[in-house]
Amino acid sequence: LTFIIYHFSEESLVYDDEQEGLNKQIVIYFSHVVAENTPKGLAAQKFAELVEKKTNGRVKVEVFPNGSLYSDDEEIDALLRGDVQMIAPSFSKVTELIPEWQVLDLPFIFKDYHDVEKAFTGDVGKQLLAMLESKGIKGLALWSNGFKQMMSNRRLLIEPRDFYELRFRIMPSDIIKKQFQLLGSEPIAVPFDNVYSSLENHELDGQENTISNIYSKGFYRFQPYLTISNHGYLGYAVMVNKQFWDHLPKEIQKKITEAMKETTIWNLQQSKRQNEQQLAQLRKNHRIHIYELTNTDRKKWKSQFAPLYQEFEKEFGNHLLRQIQKEEG
Ligand code: LMR
Question: With a cut of 0.95, is the ipTM above it?
Answer without folding.
Answer: yes
